[in-house]
Amino acid sequence: MNKYNLAYAQELDSQDPLRAMRAQFTIPKQKNGEEEYYFTGNSLGLAPKLAREYVLEFLDAWQQRGVKGHFEGDYPWMPYHEFLTAQAAALIGAKNDEVVMMNSLTANLHLMMVSFYQPQGKRTKILLEDHAFPSDHYAVSSQIKHHGLDEQENMLLWQPRQNEELLNHKDLYQLIEQQGDEIALILLPGVQYYTGQVLDMKTITEKAHAKGIKVGFDLAHAVGNIELSLHDWQADFACWCSYKYLNAGAGSVAGCFVHQQHAHNTELNRFAGWWGHDKATRFKMENNFQPIASAEGWQLSNPPVLSLAAIRGSFDTIKMAGGIKALRKKSLKLTQYMFDLLAQELSDKITIITPMAEHQRGCQLSLMINKQTISDLGIDGKTVFNRIEAKGVTTDWREPNVIRVAPVPLYNSFADIYHFVRILKECLV
Fold first, then answer.
1. CATH 3.40.640.10 domain residues, the chain
2. Less crowded by CB within 10 Å, the N or C end of the chain?
3. In the 8-state DSSP scheme, what is residue 234?
4. 385 to each of 20, 63, 344, how far by Cα in Å?
């Protein structure tokens, strides 16, 4: 069957049980007034209409109640972050007391490393991937230096093999086996931001724990994208942002997971703030910190409710779609369709570096323009990116040579994918 025609894509859309979800979002417009082909939910998700509704609800309450809004109304501000807990926990496969929405992603990574990176004796190293998102690399580097240790000696990098883009898990397991007694912490992504590769978090955690190593994950590209089971996998901690696949707006409040075995330990070392203090005595204003016996015990200040309102709108939109299982089911179909079209129409001009296997990919496909194509056309990958953008396609460029394309199941259609491949093909001739 020829999949490269609009009628086929439209037929797939007519059979899609989530097709009505697109109407719950505002799609940006091109200069000609038509909707963009938006494939950048891996960088900033589109705006759910419920997010706008809930933010306006908060602003109205502020105008009408002033400070009393902390305690009055259907969604008082004092416990507002608690309204997000159950849905956040469901998205990552956690218990409610293991999850809290707070701060920003890198701030949370620092707070977690205060608790879970405690170098002692010869166990002083942190292992992360060689091509980590820069902020993660900076955080790890500064934590090592904070303890007065040498970065070069104590930062251990898991690298792809020569002439390969993907990380090989066998190499990681060999590092753990050979140097495990010197590794204090492993910090890795759930989904690698550049290639879109999904890591085997369950096995990584098992092998690390067998060597006495703590394990944390940066889930920025995983939450709302793939199914997770952090509690069962026994990860020590995880952090994520909420503006990519969670569609909560630029710079919105992040999330944090602390496994129950640690969350209930109020003696665990941490940086403290008053919002992490026992709720029953918080407003006695005493200077004797008593942390909440849950992930909430790592909170510092009371959270920005304006941002939490947008997150609540996003979470309710995801719930409307049937949760992460329903999204993942459609996501696999979308990415498979994109794989098939690109293979059929452009296999001689581009390379997809994202793994083909379903369990190793999320929404994102990372594309490289082949060297021969660049030579034949006299253009580089960034020029191709600019060309498709000029034709109404929003994707994401990452140096040195990747166009990241993320068909998001909440609002992208099979017709979107057809048009993306059509436009990309036009720009490669």
1. 55-320
2. N
3. T
4. 30, 45, 20
330-373 pLDDT, tens digit per residue, is 999 999 999 999 999 999 999 999 999 999 999 999 999 988 88
Question: What CATH architecture does domain 6-35+323-426 belong to?
Answer: Alpha-Beta Complex (3.90)
Written as one letter, the residue type at 51 is A
3-state class (DSSP) for residue 379:
coil
Instruction: Mark residue 187 as left, alpha or beta (left: phi above 0; alpha: psi -120 to 50; beta: remaining).
Output: beta
In a 3-state reduction of DSSP, which class is residue 303?
coil
**287 with 54: CB under 8 angstroms?**
no
Where does CATH 3.90.1150.10 sit in the chain? 6-35+323-426
CATH class of 55-320: alpha beta
Beta bridge partners of 208: none
Q: Does this model's pTM top 0.85?
A: yes
* Residue-level pLDDT at 380: 85
Cα dihedral angle (360, 365, 366, 368), rounded to 10 degrees?
Answer: 120
pLDDT in tens, 114-135: 999 999 999 999 999 999 999 9
**4 class by beta-carbon count within 10 Å (0-12 exposed, 13-18 middle, 19+ buried):** middle
